[in-house]
């Protein structure tokens, strides 16, 4: 098993774990239980995604594509300029 990515936060980690699972890659998110200790533990490097050795390359490709993705273009309503409306 190899550590392939350090998500910025627990939400990103769970999102990426789910994305990898949807592609048939079992990923493990390490460090989620340590977030309660922030203040006493270092802030960076607590979270990590790990996958089996034979899935490392594909998982890294998917995460690279995720990080390179851009939001879809759309027209913003005038009353919400600069605000993402879902």
From TrEMBL:
<feature type="domain" description="DUF2007">
    <location>
        <begin position="1"/>
        <end position="65"/>
    </location>
</feature>
<protein>
    <submittedName>
        <fullName>DUF2007 domain-containing protein</fullName>
    </submittedName>
</protein>
<dbReference type="Pfam" id="PF09413">
    <property type="entry name" value="DUF2007"/>
</dbReference>
<dbReference type="InterPro" id="IPR018551">
    <property type="entry name" value="DUF2007"/>
</dbReference>
